[in-house]
Amino acid sequence: MTDTGPADLAETFPALEDVTNRTLRDGVRDAWATALAxxxxxxxxxxxxxxxxxxxxxxxxxxxxxxxxxxxELSRAxxxxxxxxxxxxxxxxxxVAGALIHDVSKLYEFAPDSPGGTxxxxxxxxxxxxxxxxxxxxxxVELAHVVLSHTHRTAVDPATLExxxxxxADQVAAAAIRSRALDDLRDA
Length: 188
Description:
Helix content: 55-70%
Radius of gyration: 16 Å
Strand content: under 5%
CATH topology: Hypothetical protein af1432
Mean pLDDT: 93
Largest sheet: none
CATH architecture: Orthogonal Bundle
Low-confidence stretches: 1-5
Distance between the termini: 40 Å
Shape: globular
Structural class: mainly alpha
């Protein structure tokens, strides 16, 4: 563990311990530590998934931690299937680390006392701050690319298989949340 990383991050995100590359694992820990240090959040479990969407759908109990863990497991399942069928075409470490870090910017976009989102959320959109956090944590550009390309809120499309897997897993995880309130996901 690095000196700056939250000691309990592996309890919050159990897959962190599955990242075999220590530099990636420590970088993910440092990125979350940076986000916690630079924002008003002191408890990752209290960070919402997407406050405006949660309010619209009547789903106040959805959290960022649960969403990230869903994205990790969906990404891992896709990775394992591809590795079984196609061989060594995708890096499991990059996928798990990328899934863990893909939404780190939400700590900056939402504040405990501002449920509707901050100016960063309104003006920059998701996930530009996350790229800065990846850089500050010394994570490789491939992970900054995952953060930047996993959502339609940027004009950057996934350029790697790892980024593509995480973007699709994120979409499925978000659809699973929305399905709790909607019978037809086309109404999302």
